[in-house]
């Protein structure tokens, strides 16, 4: 029998508390559709679907003719499946982790270290930083999606410092004035002033910030009840985060970080040291294969304010600059490429219109993982043992330089996402 190099995966779910519950979650819907025997608990959060070979969530191989039970084990025994360039560049490992996220309440204010800092943190605190790799990541919205990402333009932060006395009290008059003055000066001065302001806020004594936060929440609640416009204090978002994380310093981050809204198909790329927090919605996400996160608020987990404030990229930019453009492939109008400025991964959105009944998922010189979000088809490949029934929630591992022919059976076409590494 020919070697099987294309096969279906059963992917683990992470039930983090911030996930959407039961079948409200895109993750749960994909799992239930992909495996009709799966039981979905309506009270349980279904936060993340992990599609890859990370040790904390190695996908199971759904083909009993393959002796290895997990993708990680199979890749270790068949490293040529990665493609020659990828195998050499990433020491025989799959360089990316592909996910679906369903976000009900905010994730922590966080950033991911670059390679140098990741190695240092892992050596010093392995219990908090489990590996030595960097973790750039990209999110593509499946439903309307919201997140905080990167520092706002200085004029916006200065306007909040004037409109929100409770914020100004925590930052301090000297630091606030320095930021206001720096707005018209050189970029390095702006970054330095921003670093001082944000660090002073995040290092506030607990009693101080809890008192100021309570005062702020009471004031905004009163103004909202009287029908006043609270947008100058970012009132709606502040109250929403405070209801999820009462008394948490992270609530004040809404005055420093951009609110980014993505429509389905829009993306944001999070480079190393970029502060961010996902707020709500469903997305596919791809990242370098790592689980390193430095957190500083909106979380019950370990927080490391000093490291976060030291490492951040303090370059202000408007929220519109955070939306990462997709490029339609010149070779195939159904393919939209999201190619970030890191070597570890590239994402493709494949939208097959209903008019097309036969479609070729083309070969690339990299292992890839294919997720079906909408539609049904029968897939065939010279590297698969038999025909594969594909439907919403199906996940396939595709070895380098292998293609798949799809015979579509859904009236509305198909939507697929593919993660790979295009060196």
How would you sum up this structure, described in words?
With 423 residues, this protein is α+β, with helices and mostly antiparallel strands. The protein is 26% helix and 28% strand. The strands form 6 sheets. Strands 2, 5, 9, 11, 12, 13, 14, 15 and 17 form a 9-stranded antiparallel beta sheet that branches. An 8-stranded antiparallel beta sheet has the order 8-1-25-22-27-20-19-18, with no helix packed on it. Strand 19 and strand 20 form a beta hairpin. Helix 9 crosses helix 10. The longest helix has 20 residues. The protein is elongated, with a radius of gyration of 23 Å. The chain starts with 5 loop residues before the first strand and ends with a strand. The model has no long low-confidence stretch (mean pLDDT 95).
Mean pLDDT: 95
Choose one word for the global shape.
elongated
Stretches where pLDDT falls below 50 for ≥5 residues? none
Radius of gyration, in Å, reads 23 Å
Profile the largest sheet.
9 strands, antiparallel
How far from one another are the termini?
32 Å
Number of strands: 27
Class based on secondary structure composition and strand pairing: alpha+beta
β-strand amount: 25-35%
What level of helicity do the residues show?
Answer: 25-40%
User: How many H/I helices?
Assistant: 11
Please provide a brief summary of the model.
The protein has 423 residues and is an alpha+beta fold. It has eleven helices and 27 strands. The model has no long low-confidence stretch (mean pLDDT 95).
């Amino acid at each position: 029998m020919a070697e099987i190099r294309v096969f279906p995966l059963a992917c683990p779910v992470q039930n983090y508390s911030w996930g959407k519950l039961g079948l409200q979650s895109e993750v749960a819907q994909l799992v239930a559709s992909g495996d009709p025997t799966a039981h979905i608990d309506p009270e349980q959060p279904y936060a993340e679907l992990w599609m890859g070979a990370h040790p904390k969530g190695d996908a199971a191989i759904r083909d009993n003719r393959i002796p290895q039970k997990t993708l990680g084990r199979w890749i270790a025994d068949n490293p040529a499946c990665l493609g020659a360039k990828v195998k050499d560049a990433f020491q025989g490992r799959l360089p990316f982790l592909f996910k679906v996220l369903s976000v009900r309440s905010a994730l922590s204010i966080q950033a991911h270290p670059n390679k140098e800092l990741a190695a240092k943190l892992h050596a010093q605190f392995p219990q908090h930083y489990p590996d030595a790799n960097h973790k750039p990541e990209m999110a593509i919205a499946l439903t309307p999606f919201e997140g905080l990402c990167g520092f706002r333009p200085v004029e916006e932060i200065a306007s909040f410092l004037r409109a929100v006395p409770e914020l100004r009290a925590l930052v301090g008059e000297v630091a606030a004035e320095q930021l206001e003055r720096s707005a018209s000066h050189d970029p390095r001065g702006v970054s330095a002033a921003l670093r001082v302001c944000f660090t002073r806020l995040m290092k506030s004594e607990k009693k101080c910030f809890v008192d100021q936060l309570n005062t702020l929440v009471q004031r905004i609640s009163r103004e909202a009840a009287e029908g006043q416009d609270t947008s100058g204090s970012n009132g709606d978002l502040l109250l929403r985060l405070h209801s999820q994380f009462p008394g948490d310093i992270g609530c004040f981050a809404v005055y420093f970080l951009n609110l980014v809204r993505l429509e389905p198909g829009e993306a944001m790329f999070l480079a190393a040291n970029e502060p961010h927090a996902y707020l709500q919605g469903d997305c596919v996400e791809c990242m370098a294969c790592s689980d390193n996160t430095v957190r500083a608020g909106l979380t019950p987990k370990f927080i490391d304010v000093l490291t976060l404030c030291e490492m951040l990229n303090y370059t202000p930019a408007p929220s519109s600059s955070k939306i990462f453009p997709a490029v339609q492939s010149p070779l195939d109008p159904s393919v939209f490429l999201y190619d970030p400025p890191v070597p570890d991964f590239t994402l493709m959105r494949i939208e097959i219109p209903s008019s097309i009944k036969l479609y070729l998922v083309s070969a690339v010189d990299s292992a890839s993982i294919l997720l079906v979000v909408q539609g049904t088809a029968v897939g065939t490949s010279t590297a698969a043992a038999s025909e594969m029934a594909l439907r919403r929630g199906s996940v396939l591992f595709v070895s380098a330089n292998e293609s798949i022919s799809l015979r579509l059976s859904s009236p509305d076409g198909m939507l697929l996402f593919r993660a790979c590494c295009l060196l």
